[in-house]
Amino acid sequence: MSTAKLIFEGKEHEFPVFEGTEDEKAIDISSLRAKTGAITYDPGYGNTGSCKSTITFIDGEKGILRYRGYPIEELAVGSKFPEVAYLLIYDHLPNMNELLEWRKQLTRHSFMHESMMNFFDHYPPTAHPMAILSAMVASLYAFYPNSETDEELDTNIIRVLAQAKTIAAFSYKISRGEPIMYPQSNLSYAANFLRMMFGSPAEEYEVSDVLERALNQLLILHADHEQNCSTSTVRMVGSSQANLYASISAGISGLWGPLHGGANQEVIEMLEMIVADGGNYKKYIELAKKKDSGFRLMGFGHRVYKNFDPRARIIKKACDEVLAELGIKDPLLDIAKSIEEVALQDDFFISRKLYPNVDFYSGIIYKAMGIPTNMFTVMFAIGRLPGWIAQWLEMRRDPDNRIHRPRQVYMGEKVRKFTPVDKR
Ligand code: CMC
After folding, report:
1. What is the residue-wise DSSP string for 242-257?
2. What does the alpha-carbon distance between residue 14 and residue 2 come to, in Å, rounded to a whole number?
3. Distance from Cα 14 to the centre of ligand 1, integer Å
4. Architecture of the domain defined by 3-59
5. Is 392 exposed, middle or buried (CB count within 10 Å of its CB: 0-12, 13-18, 19+)?
6. 3-59 with 264-369: one CATH topology?
7. Which site from 62, 221, 389, 408 is most exposed, i.e. has the minimal number of CB atoms within 10 Å?
8. What angle do CA 29, 60, 259 make, to 5 degrees?
């Protein structure tokens, strides 16, 4: 095993170095504070490996993304979301029997506890569906407060995967004052979701092949992305031994922000704003280059991908196909493509390695499906569930796991004397 040497305050210290299966090198500094009294400073954790993981591999320079070793390009065209979820969570592709049983359980557990329906009566119709989703996922523990033996965990895992889509679809129906649609056992995960969203008791809902395929693909592309903000949140919360539902609910909140999963909503709102402003996208590209404008090109840039985001490539192609198959002409797509073309030739974006990310085109497909803009991040959350679950399980079963507790460098006041303002 090689080592790394650090000279600090005149003294030399050695730290072990280890390599991942894809030759990524890591310096194990877990003994740094004990040896030197100092800590590392790494805002945003850009250089910090928080865990060893066998789930997802990303090479940001080469634009590679693999789940359990399988390239995303192959999974996106050859598999369905439940199969990928199983792969991520149980570390192998299911055989036919396992897959059939898994699908059956995903439908069986998609019915919510009837008492949870009362929740919906008390949200205002304008409630953001991410607020509803995170609160209701945390509340699952109130209805199913079982312990977390391996067998019970399996049920909890299926429950959260199955019910998140029911919660999302019901909140949509209720916000529109329409009757809710219960899941149907003969339909796939994606088809059930579409029917629960867009079906009506008045007539049989025909699930469109195009939409079912596109939804499967979008969910697969979002299924995991190693130690991003929401996943790290799930691990952080779970490291205190908080239950699965509470940890996932925290992840949903982490995803909500516009710099993370909330970007897909922001992208569409940005494109709509540009169209409403006469379509002058170049003006907005210039604005994004001015630091003090506070404006960023949403759907551009990534902490890890510095060449291209492989998910964005797949989604861009899917976007063209879905719109063509549905016969939709969306001016937002034209604006998005023009922005991409111009930005990719602009030195500001080239020098900072800013490329379209997964969120740049996904919203255009969701929009074509009829999903309202404020639900885009919910779609991301449903897709990301298997990844959060797999990462939570891996963390809980890792013998090296300790409660997550970073340190800080205190820069505030030294001790000072307190004098009460109100001396009465
Ligand atoms: N528009 C304009 N400038 C940008 C953008 C952008 N979208 N993104 C980064 N920059 C600039 C930034 O100003 C900085 O410039 P300088 O070096 O001169 O100070 C440089 O590029 C590096 O940016 P950063 O903010 O330090 O990069 P980061 O790794 O901390 O942030 C990011 C990554 C994704 C948060 C950021 O690129 C961003 O805000 N993008 C827009 C939001 C977005 O699309 N988020 C979705 C990410 S993909 C889905 C997911 O997995 O979450």
Report:
1. --HHHHHHHHHHHHHS
2. 10
3. 35
4. Single Sheet (2.20)
5. buried
6. no
7. 408
8. 90
- C-alpha distances out from residue 84 to 53, 67, 160, Å: 17, 8, 16
Mean pLDDT for each 10-residue chunk of the chain (424 residues)?
95 97 96 98 96 97 96 96 98 97 94 91 90 96 88 94 96 92 92 96 92 96 97 98 97 96 94 95 96 94 92 92 91 93 95 94 92 95 98 95 96 97 91
Q: Classify each residue of 119-135 as buried b or exposed e, where b means 16 or more C-beta atoms within 10 Å of its C-beta.
A: bbeebeeebbbbebbbb
Q: Catalytic residue positions?
A: 302, 359
Architecture of domain 65-261+383-397: Orthogonal Bundle (1.10)
Pocket test for ligand 1, best of 303, 311, 314 (most atoms within 8 A of CB): 303
Give the pLDDT confidence score for residue 279 in this predicted structure: 94
Alpha-helix residue ranges (DSSP H) falling in 327-370: 331-343, 347-351, 359-369
Helix, strand, or coil (residue 261): coil
Atom of ligand 1 nearest to the CA of 230: 52
Alpha carbons 379 and 366: distance in angstroms, whole number: 9
pLDDT at 38: 98
Pairing mode of beta strands 25-27, 11-19: antiparallel
- Topology (CATH level 3) of domain 264-369: Cytochrome p450-Terp; domain 2 (1.10.230)
Confidence (pTM): 0.94
DSSP 114-162: GGGHHHHHTS-TT--HHHHHHHHHHHHHHH------HHHHHHHHHHHHH
Output the CA torsion 158→163→164→166 (10° steps).
150
